[in-house]
Fold this protein.
Amino acid sequence: MITKNQNSSQTGVTYFALCKKDSGKWGLVNARGELIVPFKYDDLGTFVDCEGDFIHIEVEGKYGLIDCLGNIVIKPIYDDIIRFFDGLALVEQNKKFGYIDTSGNVAIPMIYDSATDFEFARAIVTLDNRTFCINRYGEEIKKY
């Protein structure tokens, strides 16, 4: 078994992501050794803090999020999911970037060539060789 220690900042509970050597699949157990998430994921990442604790999952090269009980919160359809800031996570899909909310709804479409996390209610994005700042609604707010 390969182990990754997971500490939930929301609940203070410690979880362990385990990988079975025979299958190469990851699962999640709590500190008492109880299986919380079956061994079915290609990878389990670290906790993502945002209005609850979510864990990155990987299935066939696509990323999503589950909660601490193994419920899928965001289906593994993205090429990458970056952490949440201001209630939005930066995601990549088909080499384009956009943002989703904590329910997995697309808040800002995947149209950008590059993008940063939100910080101070704005993100820096590049579209068609033009770099500028957007607000959480995808509206341009000032030139970069």
About this structure: Residues 13 and 118 are 28 Å apart (CA to CA). The chain is about 0% helix and 65% strand. The longest strand covers residues 35-41. The chain has a mean pLDDT of 82.
